[in-house]
Design a protein that fits this description.
Blueprint: E1 7-13, E2 16-21, E3 26-28, E4 34-39, H1 71-78, E5 93-102, E6 105-112, H2 118-123, E7 127-135, H3 136-150, H4 158-164, H5 172-187, E8 197-198, E9 204-205, H6 207-210, E10 218-222, E11 230-239, E12 242-247, E13 250-255, E14 264-266, E15 276-278
Parallel strand pairs: 10-13
Antiparallel strand pairs: 1-2, 2-3, 4-11, 4-14, 5-6, 5-7, 7-8, 7-9, 10-15, 11-12, 12-13
Length: about 290
């Protein structure tokens, strides 16, 4: 029986995206690479634990969950979380940013300055610009100001991001236009926290980093993995946690967060045999799995 591997998720490094496996092994992902794996027969998806610790009960979790955590571990993972507003005394400086994912899809968010643009890569932001930098609560107040005054959301659903990646404007200037327009409206607002230092407009574009130029339109997304199922395709692009895989039936998007918690085994190729949710017409010695 082939050795089963457990995936810790997709990470964005200086050289591009990599899949990380329990134990620290990494698989670099390059365009044109065949990504093929199976889910162990009879396997059950189990909780990945929280904050570096294993789930004490090894609880089974839903195959459709992108968090792959049981209720208790999910609660622990959010403890002391910036997103949950539980660490108001964090002394680190934070960036406020505007991120663009496609026409009409701009969001505001914050990220620790020390993380650089990692958060934007992890979210699949096609382009972005910093707005300002300062203490956490000043950054949070600025985020709330933009949401209240300009109606800018702080979340864009992933399914919406996925369906537009193949139909983005070709020119970088066109992709940057909405960020630049919203930046101008944002900096003109009164009541900015005095401790937040405004950053100049500088739009960073990720189209080349993600491999989105000339991307074929995806026909659907993997809805869940199942025991005995296979995922196989040629990598044509990656953005955030998503891999765009060319298969015999067209390009299918795999959210790599669905891989966590499963025992995964090598697959020689073949077709995708896990459930795929179709998009609407709107838009030798095995060292590792790959």
């Amino acid at each position: 029986m082939a050795q089963a591997w457990k995936c810790s998720g997709l990470r964005w490094l200086a050289g591009g995206p990599v899949l990380v496996w329990d134990g620290g092994r990494r698989s670099a992902l390059t365009w044109g690479k065949r990504v093929a794996f199976g889910v162990a027969e009879g396997g059950v998806r189990t909780c990945v634990g929280a904050r570096g610790h294993s789930c004490p009960t090894g609880a089974a979790v839903s195959a459709r969950s992108t968090g792959a955590r049981c209720e208790e571990c999910a609660r622990l993972d959010r403890a002391h979380s910036v997103a949950a507003d539980t660490i108001a005394d964090d002394p680190r400086p934070y960036h406020v940013y505007l991120a663009w994912f496609g026409p009409g899809m701009v969001k505001v968010g914050i990220t620790a300055e020390e993380r650089g643009s990692a958060r934007l890569l992890e979210q699949g932001a096609v382009c972005f610009s910093w707005l300002g930098v300062g203490p956490l609560m000043a950054a949070r107040r600025t985020e709330e100001l933009l949401r209240a005054a300009l109606g800018v959301p702080d979340r864009i659903p992933y399914v919406e991001k996925r369906t537009v990646r193949a139909v983005l404007p070709e020119a970088a200037a066109d992709r940057a236009a909405e960020v630049a327009e919203l930046y101008g409206r944002a900096v003109a607002l009164p009541a900015w926290p005095e401790s937040l230092v405004r950053e100049p407009l500088r739009v960073v574009d990720h189209v080349e980093v993600f491999g989105l130029a000339g991307l074929p339109v995806a026909v659907g997304e993997v809805g869940e993995l199942v025991a005995g199922g296979v995922v196989s395709g040629e990598l044509v692009a990656a953005a955030g946690p998503d891999l765009h895989l060319a298969t015999g039936g067209g390009v299918v998007v795999l959210d790599t967060r669905l891989m966590s918690g499963w025992g995964l085994v090598p697959a020689g190729g073949g077709e995708v045999t896990v459930p795929v949710r179709e998009f609407k017409e709107e838009a030798g010695v095995q060292d590792g799995l790959f």
